[in-house]
Amino acid sequence: MTATEGVEAVVGTTGTGEPEPIERGTTARGPWARAWSRFRQHRLAFGSLIFCALLILTAIAAPLIAPYGYEETDIQHKLAGPGAPGHLLGTDLLGRDILSRLIYGLQTALTVAFGAELTALVLALAIGLLAGYLGGRVESLLMAFTDVMYAFPSYLFAVVMVTVLGRSIFALVVAIGIASWVTQARLVRAQVMTLKEREYVEAARSMGAKGSTIAIRYILPNAIGPILVTTSFAIPAAIAAEAGLALLGLGVQPPTPSWGAMISEGSRYLLAAPHMLVAPAVLFALTLLAFTWIGDGVRDAFDPSGEQR
């Protein structure tokens, strides 16, 4: 029997922080099943999850769903209000369909948000795992670097990065991701420092498991709950950051649509064409609320005190 098999026969490795005995042949619900059950009981979070899933599907199928291309213009219906012929939500000052640009803007927002959060998560996991597990001088150096990054205003750092890299989706992903990994790295380090002293880790170590195997296979899965919570809250923050950069004129290059750019443009025509501001602002607010409510549900799901006995 290998070290991995010996440890897995005694403890579960996909918990929320506490190792859980596993008896072969039983049908006991695991920690993930219990967390999912608690999440489903959070009606607002579960409804938000369905809403966000629909948004993701809409973004993926944008070329099939959008009535027009985001660059197409209708010169006969410039600044047309909602309900204009062929334009459910109206048009902008160039005659471009608002609904179509909202759908393509959703594609931009989600691509940047998920890409930036993936970048931040990879950095946080790498630095947090190394610092927490190795300790000593490695931890001191990594956490000193983390403190320096934490002291630097993240939004200003993102502005500098976009200015250097140029206005593109790739630049926004890199800028927002690099500017937002610090808090997660600290959380990962704290979780690793706590979990590496647990009995199942000592058992794996005594059986000859390598450090990388212990960190990735036994420590990380048991720290995943708190990491998922911070990730679920970081996604709406990334969407807001992308919109904020667009408001400053540092978003994606026109004519690629962005909710932030649409809101900025609509605010200049608030009296003449209020629909240009209302439509993107409402969808932007609903999306942020939905992802935030999902974060609330994930936090409650992984909170042991919320489990019903």
**CATH-level-2 architecture:** Orthogonal Bundle
Instruction: Please count the helical segments.
Output: 13
**CATH fold annotation:** MetI-like fold
Radius of gyration: 23 Å
Number of domains as seen in the coordinates? 1
Largest sheet: none
The number of strands is 0
Termini, distance in Å? 36 Å
Shape: elongated
- Percent range of helical residues: 55-70%
* Fraction of residues in β-strands: under 5%
Class per helix and strand makeup: mainly alpha
- Show unreliable segments: 1-27
Q: What is the name of the CATH superfamily? A: MetI-like
Q: Write down the overall mean pLDDT.
A: 85
What's the helix-strand series?
HHHHHHHHHHHHH
CATH class identity? Mainly Alpha
